[in-house]
Amino acid sequence: MTVGMTSSPSVPPAPAARAVLGLGLAALGRPGYINLGHAQDLTDARDPLALRDRAHAVLDAAWDAGVRHFDAARSYGRAEVFLAGWLTGRGLTRADVTVSSKWGYAYTAAWRTQADRHEVKEHSADHLERQWPQSRAVLGRWLSLYLTHSVTPDSGVLDDPHLLARLAAMRAQGVTPGLSLSGPQQAEVLQRALTLRVEGEPVFGAVQATFNLHERAAAGPLLAARAAGWRVYVKEGVANGRLTARAPAVPPPLARVAQRHGVTPDAVALAYVLAQPFADVVLSGAATVAHLQSNLTARDVTLTAADLDELAALQEPGAGYWATRAALPWN
Question: What SUPFAM superfamilies does the entry give (predicted)?
């Protein structure tokens, strides 16, 4: 197999319908996470069975509200297992839902909220060969997208021809390979990934990136990804709780816009992301039914030009945003 590069697409994307909300299970598959206030969410649901029931309740509420996209990862504790159990109990098929999962991190916290390391990153071909069969065994009946988790310039993924060929081969099994992004160089990583080919065909067909009112650096490459026909998922639309009522101090522009629309700050933050022309799916990271319902009201919020002008003040320098995120405690 040959691995090559082409120029990044420059054709502007066609006008998009408004994105839809999906549900990510990062805060539902394990007892610890970095979202603000997560400890209060799970005071009654930290053992595996209780957390499974909590996850299923949130999944039920999401399904009943029309959510059809669900995202997990090998490193989200038992998220894949919880999701598979719920899909089986509902009698849902691959035609009913779009399920994505990710490889590249191993969960290492042993079901503890406080641990030296909650997850360990490894983007080797050997690790893919371990984790891909595990995800297939649990979610194979439903899995549509399989992403390499948190690709950064130092991951080595984009420089490994054998690994890229292995990822590209997933298409023959009906699964679209993709990558999720993290860190201040999201844009550069995505720009390069867009050029990669195996035997003349694109390696990847999906991306999951952080984009929110504070962090907007990847907008251009995300537009290019959508123009190239990739599925574009947005994660961390509320910046791990910093753009919600749980923030130590809700940013005044966000508070004012939320008050004008009669909604919570998270709804405004997610409405902003839902309106982006590159977005297909915006993931809610809710760990409770109440927070999910609050997130879902974003679907009914249409921000005005005046709102957008006011919210523009919330953008942060990339390095500062990611430094703040890295300092968030697991709880």
Answer: NAD(P)-linked oxidoreductase (SSF51430)
